[in-house]
Amino acid sequence: MGLLVAMLVAGTGSDVMAQVQGKIIKKDRGEVVGAIRWQPASKVYVVQQGTVTLRISLSDVARVEVPKPREIDGAIGMVQRAQYATAMPVLEKIMADYQNLQWDLTAARWLAECYLKRGEAQRALDMCERVISASGGGTPSGEFGGVYLDTLIAVGQETKARRILTDMIAKGDRVTAAIAQIKRGDIDQKKGDLKLALVDGYLRTALLYTDAKTVIPEALYKAVKALEQLQQASYADKFRKRLLAEYPRDPYTAKLQSGQ
Q1: d(CA 225, CA 227)
Q2: Of 95, 99, 180, 204, whose CB neighbour count within 10 A is largest?
Q3: CB distance 227 to 198 below 8 Å
Q4: How far is residue 56 CA from its own chain's centroid?
Q5: Torsion-angle region of residue 199: left (phi > 0), alpha (psi -120 to 50) or beta?
Q6: How far is CA 79 from CA 14, 46, 68, 129, 174, in A?
């Protein structure tokens, strides 16, 4: 798998990182374009612009934009088809090649999914926390934030998960907040409080975060399942119809149709 993969996944660290063409958007709204390389030991981006070399501290960076790795969609497809062993080395290499270069978080999100599906929750958690630490230790966001919460829940760290999801709701964008609301529902359901999970997690998301289109199908699916368990058949049917009508091609729709 190579030295780069071992360094990131095992957490050994090195300054030998891949160089990727892209753009850095700074917190002062300035932009720097060039061949970007991340140096983890010094937490600095090195940007090559012809014969000019620039060094930009992580603390000065708002975000990094680089082209999508051509392998990532195929790897995600493998995970969705439960081909975890095949997907894992591809995702690990992307994480190594793109450390702190935008796409490492996407790869980490799906690699964590692989670990969770294989029953390796602690391995998933350790990897997620290394990624968060390498990126500056802030509040996680988006789908990566969601799978990080999943790993915490899976290893029984619900108190920590609640603290983090509260920060995600308060500080994150609408998609991040919606994901966190659903995970709050998952924690309540795990504790046996299905009504609270339904109202404060799944229904809250489905009704109040309708702009978070990528997240709504999961909320609707989990609302249907909770309502069925609570023997609220008419309400379950209402949300089932909404899921089928508005998101006919979503994986959660397929899951519902298959009776899962």
Answers
A1: 5
A2: 180
A3: yes
A4: 26
A5: alpha
A6: 28, 33, 18, 21, 26
SS3 93: helix
Where residue 5 falls among pLDDT bands split at 50, 70, 90?
very low
Reading phi first (left if > 0) and then psi (alpha if -120 to 50, else beta), residue 173 is in: beta
CA gap 86, 93 in Å, rounded:
12
CB-based burial label for 63 (10 Å; 0-12, 13-18, 19+): exposed
* DSSP type of residue 64: E
Query: What is the spatial distance between Cα 183 and Cα 200, in angstroms, rounded to a whole number?
Result: 10
Residue 34 or residue 11, greater confidence = 34
pTM: 0.85
Q: How far apart are CA 152 and CA 148, in angstroms?
A: 6
Nearest to 130 by CA among 144, 143, 116: 144
Question: Do 102 and 38 contact (CB within 8 A), yes or no?
Answer: no
Torsion sign (Cα): 109, 26, 175, 252: negative
What is the rounded CA–CA span in Å between residue 217 and residue 224?
Answer: 11
- Please give the Cα distance from 180 to 91 (Å, whole number): 24
**What domains can you pick out in the chain, each with its CATH number?**
14-65 (2.30.30), 139-257 (1.25.40)
Q: What angle do CA 76, 117, 253 make, to 5 degrees?
A: 65
pLDDT tens digit string along 167-199? Answer: 999 999 999 999 999 999 999 999 999 999 999
Q: How far is CA 2 from the centre of its chain?
A: 25
